[in-house]
Amino acid sequence: MQSKEPLYRLKEIANILRSDGGCPWDREQTFSSLKQYLIEEAYEVYDAIDSGDMENLREELGDLLYQVYAHSRIAEETGAFNVDDVANGISDKLIRRHPHVFGNEEIADSKGVKIRWENIKKSEKAKRESILDGVPRHLPALTRAYRIQEKVSHVGFDWEKIDDAVTKLDEEVHEFKEAVKHESQERISEEAGDILFSMVNVLRFKGIDPEDALRATTDKFMKRFKHIERECAASGKVMHDMSLAELDELWEKAKGND
Fold first, then answer.
1. Residue 130 — φ and ψ, nearest 5°?
2. CA torsion 99→101→107→108, rounded to 10°?
3. What SS3 class is residue 109?
4. Cα 63 to Cα 72: distance, rounded to the nearest angstrom
5. Domain of residue 55, residue span
6. Distance, CA of 127 to CA of 104 (rounded, Å)
């Protein structure tokens, strides 16, 4: 099996695992049962990219690729489609949505490419009532907000400049502060959501992925907190027994190590 073309080899392995003489666990899997692994593998690819470890990235991309083959094999068993249909489908789509490459159209810049892409996509998905219907509901909340704002901006529903978006963010922060003082939990939650949505919009103007921004801050916090834990352990102290002032002092030292 080693000598066969790599993608054909993977396809054959996926088929064998699902066969009567294959793996009992693999034969039991369904689209629904594999969903969690599909998401996990995608996030592991994300982590590998951030780590800069190319060997790990190669491995994780392989795990993600296998998910495509596994789902396609299940679909093939029902007569719905197979992995070749998947490959042909995405190939045809890429050609259709790049008329400036595979056709005679001329597009000046990447902004024009995005607008043309959305217009072609809209014509392909004519049954959809809204341009927002194609944004998956189960995306991470910050990413979903970013994608929605990006899509509506392509049809002109957007602030003229980033200063307007920042002003809106300031308004939402003020409303949140007032809600914290006087309003219900539900109202506070609503205002907090407005802040997050507005913050995502500001980041979008700068081309900053909100997930990346929050992930980096969370990683920074973890690094600093672990420094505090190490300092406490080295001095024989227990964090629960330390004052906030002592912990703040350690925190400032941790910040100096960034």
1. -140, 150
2. 170
3. coil
4. 14
5. 6-96
6. 27
* 112 domain-assigned: no
User: Is 72 inside any structural domain?
Assistant: yes
Model confidence over 120-132: pLDDT tens digits? Answer: 988 888 777 888 9
- Residues 252, 176, single domain; the answer is no
pTM of the model as a whole = 0.70
Residues 193 and 218 reside in one and the same domain: no
200 and 234 together in one domain:
no
Q: Which DSSP letter does residue 238 get?
A: -
Check: CB of residue 232 under 8 Å from CB of residue 242. Answer: yes
Residues 134 and 159 in one domain: yes
Contact 35, 91 (CB under 8 A): no
Query: How many whole angstroms separate alpha carbon 176 and alpha carbon 193?
Result: 9
Note whether 194 and 236 are same-domain residues. no
Tens of pLDDT, residue by residue over 163-182, are 999 999 999 999 999 999 98
**Count of structural domains, the chain:** 3
Show which of 96, 119, 152 is a domain's final residue: 96
Instruction: Give 18-84 as a 3 state SS string.
Output: HCCCCCHHHHHCCHHHHHHHHHHHHHHHHHHHHHCCHHHHHHHHHHHHHHHHHHHHHHHHHCCCCHH
Strands (E), 90-173: none
Those residues whose C-beta lies under 8 Å from the C-beta of residue 106, and which sit 6 or more positions away, are: 100
192-197: long-range contacts, CB 8 A cutoff, minimum separation 24:
195/169, 196/141, 196/142, 196/145, 197/145
Distances (CA, A) of 255 to 54, 128, 133, 214, 239: 30, 50, 44, 17, 18
